[in-house]
Amino acid sequence: MPERLREASVHGRFQPLHNGHMEYLRAARERCCFLWVGIAAPDPEEARRFRNTAREQLNSNPLTYFERVAILTAALLEDGMSLAEFRVVPFPIETPHRLTNYVPVSVPCLTTIYEEWNREKVRLLRTVGYTVEVLYERDVKVISGAEIRENIAKGGDRWMGLVPRATAEAIRAYDIRPRLIRLTELDERP
Q1: CA distances from 158 to 6, 38, 50, 73, 150 (A)
Q2: 5-22 pLDDT, tens per residue?
Q3: Among the residues of 44-142, which ranges form H helices?
Q4: Residue 104 is part of a domain; what is its CATH number?
Q5: pTM > 0.85
Q6: Cα separation of 31 and 11, whole Å?
Q7: Rounded CA separation 134/99 (Å)
Q8: Pairing between strand 86-90 and 32-39?
Q9: Is 24 in contact with 53 (CB distance < 8 Å)?
């Protein structure tokens, strides 16, 4: 196994943070002493101007940056990390030229690969100057944020078993279901 890094970064939209994300965060934590957790699409409206894919749809981004910071912080603390071991920062991968405003290129990026978008992100990060390490590559996502959002919007409860306790508590506290329904309606307008 390679030597443990002093610091490294991970990134994701975390819309919402789920158990698959936690697996990724734990794997990254094993690789470094300090973890920068980057929130992609910190401003979903801005992200939509640069890339207009399903990831940038309004209903794919129901949680604000502030809410995602709160959820990530609570979940990582619940998982045994201390505040001295991580920090949550914006990570606007959709505008790669802005990334170095938030995470210096001297900080290696740890990522996973499930689909072509992940490969594209690796290329983007390397073009900016980051060292990128792929923690693992898989053909299938066991847990999907889209599936969780859809289940929440439909009033289901399957999603609760797919997310950390901090996420479940936040989804209820922030009353995300009506927001998801409203955002879906906005996305479906011509």
Answers
A1: 38, 27, 33, 23, 10
A2: 999 999 999 999 999 999
A3: 44-50, 65-78, 116-128
A4: 3.40.50.620
A5: yes
A6: 15
A7: 19
A8: parallel
A9: no
